[in-house]
From TrEMBL:
Transmembrane regions listed in the UniProt entry: 225-244, 256-281
MF-aspect GO terms: undecaprenyl-phosphate 4-deoxy-4-formamido-L-arabinose transferase activity
UniProt xrefs under InterPro entries: Glyco_trans_2-like, Glycosyltransferase_2, Nucleotide-diphossugar_trans
SUPFAM superfamilies from the UniProt entry: Nucleotide-diphospho-sugar transferases
Keyword Nucleus: no
Protein name: Glycosyltransferase family 2 protein
UniProt keyword annotations, A-Z: Cell membrane, Glycosyltransferase, Lipopolysaccharide biosynthesis, Membrane, Transferase, Transmembrane, Transmembrane helix
Residue ranges of domain Glycosyltransferase 2-like in the record: 2-130
GO biological process: lipopolysaccharide biosynthetic process
One cellular component (GO) term of this entry: plasma membrane
Length: 301
């Protein structure tokens, strides 16, 4: 099991106990890998204590904050089991659902997501999440709309994740490229007990933009259609002015309408340039070959 940790000092101890209880009946044993994503609290000290007390608990500390998806990929690359579970540390995803998810995976599915019918997040986060999922599904047809961070992944899929080196990571986008052989299991969504979510509206929007630009050419196609629409609109406008001039019905042109047209067209041009700039920036980051994460310390190999 892989658990990315960001300011989770109070929750990872109870999580470890609940995971051990949930998997007590599973054959072959299990390991828990806590990846400290440098949230600024004493999570690493708690991880070290858990690792010292429990041989099946391992800890990895990153050199700085790389983000949830990068931290999760770090843990996946270090996992040794046939099935790799990823789960958040905030206890909103109940570990007691693991046996049913693993049983579903044993039916022949390479990936199993634990999905919820009702989330306990704030209304604005649920709304932006639903809108984002619908847009992602439109832009990335192979993506499972019901993806979550509560996953069971077969080792064959996990091995393929190591080949992706984009600095703008999205694990479920990678999985959709590797396989479409997935299933879902309905699980409860519990209330967060400790702290508050680190995701705010700005971070969610940035995450959505990164997914669109990294995994889809939809923004480029939108820029093309915006440019064509603006050109067509400008041509029709010019034709209407010419007809009005020839028929003598053209009055004195207004300064406001001219400025409005210039501002509109200038905004479209800047938007299109911005979209191209986002793609160029990702090409630059990719060619720079920057690592997704850097490990600073481990409790045990």
């Amino acid at each position: 099991m892989v658990v990315p940790v960001y300011r989770g000092a109070e929750s990872i101890g109870p999580l470890q106990k609940r995971v051990d209880a949930a998997l007590a009946g599973e054959q072959g044993g299990h390991e828990i890998i806590f990846v400290d994503d440098r949230g600024g609290d004493n999570s690493w000290e708690v991880i070290q204590a858990l690792s010292a007390a429990h041989p099946h608990v391992r800890g990895i500390r990153l050199s700085r904050n790389f983000g949830q998806h990068a931290a999760t990929l770090c843990g996946i690359s270090s996992a040794r089991g046939e099935w790799i579970v990823t789960i958040d540390e905030d206890l909103e995803q109940p570990p007691e659902s693991l046996p049913s998810m693993l049983a579903k995976a044993e039916e022949g599915h390479l990936v199993v997501y634990g999905v919820t019918e009702q989330r306990s997040h704030a209304w604005w986060r649920n709304l932006t999440s639903e809108v984002g999922r619908s847009l992602f599904k439109f832009a990335i047809p192979t993506l499972n709309r019901e993806y979550t961070s509560f996953r069971v992944i077969h080792r064959s899929v996990a091995a393929g994740l190591d080949r992706f080196q984009s600095p703008f990571t999205f694990i479920d986008g990678y999985i959709s490229w590797i396989t479409n052989h997935y299933a879902t299991v309905v699980v409860p969504h519990d209330e967060r007990v400790h702290g508050s979510s680190s995701y705010n509206l700005r971070k969610l929007i940035v995450h959505m933009v990164n997914i669109f630009v990294t995994f889809s050419d939809l923004p480029l196609r939108m820029a093309t259609w915006l440019g064509l629409s603006a050109s067509l609109g400008g041509g029709l406008w010019g034709l209407a002015i010419l007809v009005a001039k020839l028929t003598g019905s053209l009055g004195v042109s207004g300064y406001a309408s001219i400025m409005a047209g210039m501002t509109f067209l200038g905004g479209i041009q800047l938007l299109i340039l911005g979209i191209f700039g986002e793609y160029l920036a990702r090409i630059n980051f990719k060619t720079a070959s920057m690592p997704l994460f850097l490990v600073e310390q481990e409790t045990r190999q």
